[in-house]
Design brief:
The chain is of the alpha+beta class. The chain has ten helices and 16 strands.
Length: 368
């Protein structure tokens, strides 16, 4: 595993989207590929580092772990078995995206992935309390599913024959400079086979449009932007290829009382002048319901009090944040005659000390 920061390796900002990350990896792969730098060990190492960074940052789950905990959060999942083979296969995919052909290193892998289903995204809006407490809900997802009649082959039983131009390989190889290039076969479209009797259930497409009801389990402590991966719930594959995944992206509505900062909750509670001056037991809202808070004598506006363990639970179940209650002294805008007289009486003693009594002692005497 490389010691360098993955974002630095690819030269992208931490907020870069997947398209920017893939573009940066393309540039690095084309620049440092061993075929373009024969005998250059530094270029080969840069090439491997770029592939490792791309493998993490292009995967939503791995990227979320890396952003929160660094490489220690990946627990070795950043590296992958058959490292060199996977590097060349990834590079093959990028060459295919750019130029419409693939390196011979990744030919077999490209054929196996050719019919794989696409990943899908579903945006789900939830309430603030639901994000804190977690919930189980159902969603309706329209998607292309593998045809049950032909199991994704697109053909009736016995309705497929091997392409006679590529011999079933799906590619035709030829030499070009340093590279041995394998172009997709133009007769079979790179599949290595030809459908001679299309499936009547999907008209030869291998997939049909369906709307599926799925149950989503949202853990407690999620926040806006959290992505939940539902494996194999994306679009169906064709030709026996696996389906894609579904990524549920959460959007949390704002709360009328609470503001969230990481795992901590913050709220502002108004109190009267007399409560702040004399001290009082007040009721405060929490995400779990009401609670009480003892205000000390002489509480100033803007003072914050901590309610330990009353914040948001961590998604991994390890601990919970706190709640911070900020007091805001409420000044009355309309006064009765008696109230005005009392406040004017208090003003006479403002900032004065007499008979050993301070301001707050005088407030107690006036209002008692």
């Amino acid at each position: 595993m490389s010691d360098r920061d993955y974002y630095d390796i690819l030269g992208v900002k931490r907020e870069a989207d997947v398209a920017e990350i893939k573009k940066a990896y393309r540039r690095a792969a084309l620049r440092y590929h061993p075929d373009k730098n024969p005998g250059d060990s530094a270029a080969e190492e840069n090439f491997k580092e770029a592939a490792e960074a791309y493998a993490v940052l292009s995967d939503p789950e791995k990227r979320q772990l890396y952003d929160r905990f660094g490489k220690s959060g990946l627990g070795g999942s950043a590296g992958f078995p058959g490292f060199d083979q996977d590097i060349f296969a990834d590079f093959s995919d990028i060459l295919g995206d750019l130029f419409g052909f693939g390196s011979v290193f990744g030919g077999a892998r490209r054929r196996s992935r050719a019919g794989a289903g696409r990943d899908l995204r579903y945006d789900l809006e939830i309430e603030f309390e639901e994000a804190v407490e977690g919930l189980e809900t159902k969603i309706q997802v329209p998607r292309l599913e593998t045809c049950d009649t032909c199991r994704g082959t697109g053909a009736e039983e016995g309705g497929i024959e091997t392409c006679n131009q590529c011999g079933g390989r799906g590619q035709v190889a030829f030499q070009q400079g340093f590279f041995t290039i394998a172009r997709p076969c133009n007769r079979c479209g790179g599949t290595g086979r030809r459908i001679v009797r299309p499936c009547h259930g999907c008209s030869g497409q291998g997939r049909v449009q369906q709307e599926r009801t799925l149950t989503v389990r949202i853990p407690a402590g999620v926040d806006s932007g959290t992505r939940l991966r539902m494996s194999d719930e994306g679009e169906g594959g064709t030709g026996g290829a696996p389906p894609g995944d579904l990524y549920v992206v959460l959007h949390v509505r704002e709360h009328a009382v609470f503001q969230r900062r990481d795992l901590d909750l913050h709220c502002v509670v108004p109190v009267s002048f007399t409560q702040a001056a004399l001290g009082a037991e007040i009721s405060v809202p929490t995400i779990d319901g009401g609670d009480s808070l003892d205000l000390p004598v002489g509480t100033q506006t803007g003072t914050s009090f901590r309610l330990k363990g009353r914040g948001v639970p961590a998604v991994n179940g390890r601990g919970r944040g706190d709640q911070y209650v900020t007091v805001q002294v409420r000044v009355p805008t309309r006064l009765s005659r008696e109230q005005r007289q009392l406040i004017e009486q208090l003003a006479e003693f403002d900032d004065e000390e007499a008979d050993g009594q301070g301001l707050f002692d005088r407030v107690k005497n006036i209002f008692s």
